[in-house]
Amino acid sequence: MINGIINIYKEPGYTSFDVVAKLRGILKQKKIGHTGTLDPMATGVLVVCLGQATKLVDLLTQGTKQYKATMKLGLSTDTEDITGRVLQTEKVDVSVFDIEKTIKEFVGKYSQIPPMYSAIKKDGKKLYEYARNGIDVEREARPVEIFSIENISFDLPYVSFDVHCSKGTYIRSLCRDIGEKLGCHATLAALERKEVHGFMLEDAYKLDEISHMASNGTIMDAVLPIDAILGQYSKAIIKPDKLKYLQNGNKLSDYNFIFDSVDKTPIIRVYNEKEIMALYEYTDEGVYKPYKMFVN
C-alpha cells in the first residue's frame, strides 16, 4: 500500500469521487481520500491522500484556497453556475468601473449563504437532496473570508478574477452575491482551483499521467511523503525502548523523546529511526497524547 499525497489535476466532467475511484483502480488500493470537493465543471488542484495519509484529510481541508473564476453577468441559475436551470436573465447595464469596485468590496470577512446544490446538511439531509426534489430550504449564513481578489478582467457579460479565500467559501455563491449587489445577477461560468494548502496547479498530475507512471514503475515520483506538509510542527524522535508505548497509543512525556529542537510546538511530529510514526498533542496534564497515528 502506498502512503503519501498526490496533487491531482482534476479535469472537467469528473466529480471528485470519480477521481478517487479511478485512482483506486490505477493504484490497486482502496484507502484513498480527497481533501476538498470540486464541482464536475471545475478544474484544478485536487489533493489526494493515500493509505495512512488519509488521516490528514481533515488537516488539509482547513487550509486556504486560490481560484481563477469567471462569472457571467445578467444570469441566475438554480445551481448558481452555468450548468443549472436558468431562473432569470437581465440586461447588464453596469459600468466596468462599478463592477470592479463592487467585486473588491467583497474582500474581507462576510456572511455567505451556501448554495442549495451543496453537500451541507440540514436536518440530517444534504441540501442538494432537497434541491433535486424542488424544495428550497432556509440556510444559515456562514462566516467566510476573502483575502484578496486580483487580476480582474472583462469580456462582458463575462468577468474573470483570481480569488484567495478561506475554507468553506463557495465561489458560486460569491458570484451570486456580487451579481445581487450589482443588481443584475451573476452565475459562475468557469472555475479553476490554483492552490490548496501549498499544493500548486503547475505541479499537479493528470490521471493519465498517474496511470502511465503506475504502469512503468515510477509512481513514487508523484507521491509526497506524509510529513511533507507537516513542517510547521516540531520534530521528535521516540526513544527505542518507548516505541511500543507509542504503537499502543499511550500518552507520552518529554523524557520519552529526543527533540531535534528546543522550540516545541503544541503538536509534534514523532519519528522512529526511519519514518514518521504519529502526531502527538501536548495536554494540560503536561504529557503528550496521540493526535494522528500513522502506524498500523
Descriptive account of the structure:
The structure is a single chain. The chain is an alpha+beta fold and 296 residues long. 20% of the residues lie in helices and 35% in strands. The protein has three domains: 4-62 and 198-227, Pseudouridine synthase, CATH 3.30.2350.10; 65-195, Pseudouridine synthase; 232-293, PUA domain (Archaeosine Trna-guanine Transglycosylase, Chain: A, domain 4, Roll). Strands 1, 2, 3, 4, 7, 10, 11, 12 and 13 form a nine-stranded mixed β-sheet that branches. The protein has a five-stranded mixed β-sheet with strand order 15-14-16-17-18. Strands 5-6 form a two-stranded antiparallel sheet. The model has no long low-confidence stretch (mean pLDDT 91).
Relevant terms:
296 residues, alpha+beta, Pseudouridine synthase, Archaeosine Trna-guanine Transglycosylase, Chain: A, domain 4, 9-stranded mixed sheet, 5-stranded mixed sheet, 7 helices, 18 strands, 35% strand, elongated
| Helical fraction | 10-25%
Share of β-strand residues: 35-45%
- Secondary-structure content class: alpha+beta
Total tally of structural domains: 3
Order of helices and strands: EHEEHEEEHEEEHEEHEEHEHEEEE
Main sheet properties: 9 strands, mixed
Rounded to an integer, what's the Rg over CA atoms? Answer: 22 Å
CATH topology of the largest domain: Pseudouridine synthase
* Full CATH superfamily name of the largest domain: Pseudouridine synthase
| Tally of helical segments | 7
Shape: elongated
Q: Write down how many β-strands occur, each being a DSSP E stretch of 2 or more residues.
A: 18
Distance between the termini: 12 Å
